[in-house]
Amino acid sequence: MVFVVVYTAINWWRQPVMPANPQLQLTDYQGQTVDLVQLSAEKPTLIYFWGSWCPICRTTSPSVNTLAAQGNYPVVTVAIKSGTDQELHRYLSQHSYNFTTINDQKGDIFADWQGQVTPSYVILKDGEMTQGLTGIQPLWSLKLRLWFSSLG
Question: Is residue 135 packed enough to be buried (19+ CB in 10 Å), middle (13-18) or exposed (0-12)?
Answer without folding.
Answer: middle
